[in-house]
Amino acid sequence: MKILFFDTKKYDKESFDKILPKYKGIEVEYVQADVSEGTAKYAKGYDAICAFVSSDLSKKVIEILAESGIKLILMRCAGFNNIDLKACEKHGITILRVPGYSPEAVAEHAMALALACNRRIHKAYIRVRENNFSLVGLTGLNFYQKTAGIIGTGKIGAAMCRLCHGFGMKVLAYDMYQNPDLDFVQYVELDQLLKESDLISLHCPLTDDTYHIINSKSIKKMKDDVVLVNTSRGALIDTEDLIKGIREHKFHSVGLDVYEEETNNVFENREDDILETSITSRLLSFPNVIVTSHQAFLTDEALEAISYTTMENAKSFIDGKIIENNIVK
Ligand code: NAI
């Protein structure tokens, strides 16, 4: 099997190269470009492509991949909201993903964002470097004995519940399915979670139901001085409504690893560019907001698990095995 690996970053190549010798008969060619309408044609001559959460796998791109003979898309991530599943089904393209490489990696980043924005670590870091030892504007909130509200208690949400519990927080959760392992969590309706939580962290997938689940109406229901964290998907939050809420002083702090319109920014060095939209710069203009660039997954352990599961997915496909990680069944 020949795999064309799109959007290669140094850390991807390192983690895949480490395990490739174990997979005889599978060849990987790395390219820096991401898959798009312009680059999909380069997949001709390959059996599979390997793509990521920010790759363009829209209908047109899938058509070009199908014409190029691609039978398999190996997603080296959990999310797949960027893929036109109908087009894949139509063209008989299998999509395999890595459903849970390291939930703790993402949950720990969510907690890192919550703590950093709450305690204004981003401002303190810059200040002290400039010999400014003033504490004005750096006041945070204790999490101890406060209430955490976790939306979505799958693998990552459950890990975040455990972290919040460890901080001595009362943990409320909202999900259609109750996770039986979380006996310390109180499941409530979304409205109650919004009303009572001091820290709200989003861990549900982006679906038609969850699109803009955080909007001006839900923001109004939140406590004043709430800390909001999103490490799930940008479009869970209506950014314009969030910006309005921040301007109205609703939030103590906001930590975002994902945000709407992040696609062109994610994993790119754009320091010489003039940005097309003002969302990123407006978010960054607030002293109580921290934005990271979709890095919640990025730990050694997660990268190792991603490369291992991706290669096992490829091997199972070659062996014609039924694969749990199949998205289009
Ligand atoms: P999961 O599938 O284990 O859990 C998702 C949970 O959300 C499930 O319990 C499900 O019942 C719940 N859910 C679905 N629709 C809901 C709704 N309308 N309201 C409330 N809950 C709902 O997924 P996992 O592995 O925990 O990942 C969660 C999300 O994290 C992914 O969908 C992905 O978007 C994001 N993610 C972000 C990463 C990053 O680097 N920032 C890395 C990996 C995942």
Give a written overview of the molecule.
- With 329 residues, this protein is an alpha/beta fold.
- Helix content is 33%, strand content 15%.
- The strands form 2 sheets. The chain has a 7-stranded parallel sheet, with helices on both faces.
- Helix 1 crosses helix 11 and helix 4 packs across helix 6.
- The longest helix is centred in the last third of the chain and has 19 residues.
- It is globular.
- The mean pLDDT is 95.
- Bound molecules: 1,4-dihydronicotinamide adenine dinucleotide.
- The site of 1,4-dihydronicotinamide adenine dinucleotide has 31 residues, from helix 4 and helix 6.
Secondary-structure blueprint:
Layout: E1 2-5, H1 10-19, E2 27-30, E3 48-51, H2 59-67, E4 72-75, H3 85-90, E5 94-96, H4 103-118, H5 121-129, E6 147-151, H6 155-166, E7 170-174, E8 185-187, H7 190-196, E9 199-202, H8 216-221, E10 226-230, H9 239-247, E11 251-256, H10 279-284, E12 289-291, H11 300-318
Parallel strand pairs: 1-2, 1-3, 3-4, 4-5, 6-7, 6-9, 7-8, 9-10, 10-11, 11-12
Helix pairs in contact: 1-11, 4-6
The chain binds 1,4-dihydronicotinamide adenine dinucleotide.
Radius of gyration: 21 Å
Number of strands: 12
Q: Helix- and strand-based class?
A: alpha/beta
The small-molecule ligands in this entry are: 1,4-dihydronicotinamide adenine dinucleotide
For the termini, the CA-CA separation is 21 Å
Question: What does the overall shape look like?
Answer: globular
Strand content: 15-25%
Proportion of helical residues: 25-40%
User: What is the averaged pLDDT score?
Assistant: 95
Q: Order of strands in the sheet with the most strands?
A: 8-7-6-9-10-11-12
